[in-house]
């Protein structure tokens, strides 16, 4: 047998052994609800003429979810006298002007920040039955060091209106995040009713830039169905 044939035979044996050590495994990621639209742009006057403002909105830290891990919100708030913490609903806001300087970086390149004022007291949810719920009056900073999600701590709360394009916001970028360049602020609603079948409309209100109101379109929730697939798993795990 030639050297080439020996090598091919050995590779086939190794492949067969590898396949024999693995088994098909059914995978399933549960259904969830997500924002039908997540990104918005606005044109405003800037230091060098007209510029673009960007607003990204998220319900989840998408970078933290993989494989069949459920996609879900993670905020739980403790209330005095209650045994268990309550879930609360939140929307992540990432706002910045085009080519904005990055305070999380040592570089001084980029455009100076344009203040973007946001007042969470204008935010509300319209539920399926037509009832409405106002947001918490404070804006919350994303101060967690690892993931994109809010913490209802006094150190994270800022009174409305608040500049969500400030250096204070953009210095805080977690390791696993939806945006590796800019930080986050959060709007929080005191409801634990959010699930995959929620058909809410979220009214964030408007941004204020240089005295100009920039309305944010109402955002609906879209159902994301169960995802099923077959994965290959090792027969024996270390």
What is the tally of helical segments?
2
Helix content: under 10%
- Mean pLDDT over the residues: 89
Measured between the Cα atoms of the first and last residue, the distance is 37 Å
Strand order within the widest beta sheet: 3-4-7-14-11-12
| Major sheet description | 6 strands, antiparallel
Shape: globular
Q: What report would you give on this structure?
A:
This protein is mainly beta and 238 residues long. The protein has one domain. 9% of the residues lie in helices and 37% in strands. It has helices at residues 3-20, 167-170, and strands at residues 22-29, 32-35, 39-46, 49-58, 76-77, 86-87, 89-97, 117-118, 124-126, 132-134, 139-141, 157-158, 162-163, 185-189, 201-203, 206-209, 212-215, 219-224, 227-234. The strands form 5 sheets. A 6-stranded antiparallel β-sheet has the order 3-4-7-14-11-12, with no helix packed on it. A hairpin with an 8-residue loop joins strand 5 and strand 6.
Give me a quick take on this structure:
The chain is mostly beta strands and 238 residues long. It has helices spanning 3-20, 167-170; strands spanning 22-29, 32-35, 39-46, 49-58, 76-77, 86-87, 89-97, 117-118, 124-126, 132-134, 139-141, 157-158, 162-163, 185-189, 201-203, 206-209, 212-215, 219-224, 227-234. The chain contains 2 helices and 19 strands.
Key words describing this protein structure:
mainly beta, 6-stranded antiparallel beta sheet, 5-stranded antiparallel beta sheet, 37% strand, globular
